[in-house]
Amino acid sequence: MKTLVPLTTRELSIILKWRSEIENWSDDKRVLSKIKDAHDKSVDLYLSSLQIDIVRGWCEQELGGHYGGGIVTNMEEHSILKKLKIV
Known about the structure:
Shape: globular
Distance between the termini: 12 Å
Number of strands: 2
Number of helices: 4
Largest sheet: 2 strands, antiparallel
Helix content: 55-70%
Strand order of the largest sheet: 1-2
Order of helices and strands: EHHEHH
Strand content: 5-15%
C-alpha cells in the first residue's frame, strides 16, 4: 500500500541534495527516482512503508551525529522529520 508523503517542493529539494548520488542500491535508486519525479512534476509523492523508512534513514544519516550525537535541524529539516514520522 502506498502512503501520501506530504512534503513540499522545497523539502523534496532538500532530500535530493542529501542524495545527489546513490550507489548501486536498487531500492534507494527507486525511491530517489520517485522523489525526483514528484519534485520535477510538482505532484504528490506516494511511497510504501519500506520506502518511507529508507528516506527516514537518509534523514538520520544526514542530520544525526552533530554536536555530540544529537540531531540538529533547521525548520525545514525539522518539518521533513516530523512529516516522515507521522506517515
